[in-house]
Design a protein that fits this description.
The protein is mainly β and about 260 residues long. The protein contains no helices and 18 strands.
Length: about 260
């Protein structure tokens, strides 16, 4: 039990390779400068596809709300009486050479619905549900360098109507993010914090951290955890070492 006047206000987590500090992850808003086409084209997933005539827009975006209200639309009154259909989004971007030793992910906060995502012509997966967030690993398929383009293509199919008891909208209607990490990093949703014992005088804090090693070699890492108070004062700190095999994930449990 650690005495603290203010319950868990700031938790700072660091991961180090032995004798070498690693830079923190970066998370970039990836919502600007997408190309949009309302309709379907089987070749739109290819880098060579010409999208010059497509509409330029920023996300989030809902194409249904731009349509005409009509009670005869397949979504019906319950779905807002607006059209669904199929549409595509594309975005071109560069990845600098310094990211070759990093992991690069794309996170979609929500796409309605039945989406499929491609990077440089490689299908990353299909997500039928329109409300849950999802992530894909771009790392194996990226072209690096300022002179090399990468193309993300997203096909969204909201043609199977009705499929909701309320207005759902259509398209990439939530934010998109690009996240970059080291080969050894805290996994996505990899930090779980609980406070099983709390009183006015003290609190017990339990922390479970999932650390992932996507490096091509075994590594020893040190996980350092610090608990800070309201004014930035250190309340408690701990560190522990763990061995990570190639392409593995391990949990570290800490009691503060």
């Amino acid at each position: 039990m650690k005495k603290c006047s203010t319950l868990l206000l700031l938790l700072v987590l660091f991961i180090f390779k032995t004798n070498a500090q690693q830079s923190l992850r970066s998370r970039e808003n990836f919502c600007n400068d997408w190309k949009f086409f309302l309709g379907d084209n089987a070749s739109a997933n290819l880098n060579t596809y010409d999208d010059a005539s497509w509409r330029l827009l920023n996300l989030p975006h809902d194409w249904s709300i731009e349509g005409k209200f009509d009670e005869k639309n397949p979504a019906g009154i319950g779905g807002g009486a607006l059209p669904g259909g199929v549409a595509w989004y594309r975005k071109s971007f560069q990845v600098t050479a310094e990211f070759k030793n990093k992991n690069v992910f794309i996170d979609f906060d929500g796409v309605y619905r039945l989406s499929e995502v491609w990077i440089n012509g490689h299908s990353l997966g299909i997500r039928p549900n329109g409300y849950i967030s999802f992530r894909y690993d771009l790392t194996p398929y990226l072209n690096y360098g300022d002179d090399n383009n990468n193309v993300i293509a997203v096909r969204v199919d909201n043609s199977q109507q009705p499929n909701s008891r309320w207005y759902s909208g259509s398209g990439i209607y939530r934010n998109v993010w690009m996240e970059t990490t080291n080969k050894i990093a805290v996994d996505q949703w990899g930090t779980v914090i609980t406070t099983p014992q709390v009183s006015e005088q003290s609190a017990k804090v339990l922390i479970t951290i999932s650390v992932k090693n996507s490096d091509n070699k075994k590594n020893e890492v040190t996980v350092k955890t610090s608990l800070m108070g309201e004014e930035g004062k250190l309340i408690s700190a701990t560190s522990s070492k763990m061995d990570l095999n190639v392409d593995s994930k391990k949990k570290n449990n800490t009691d503060l």
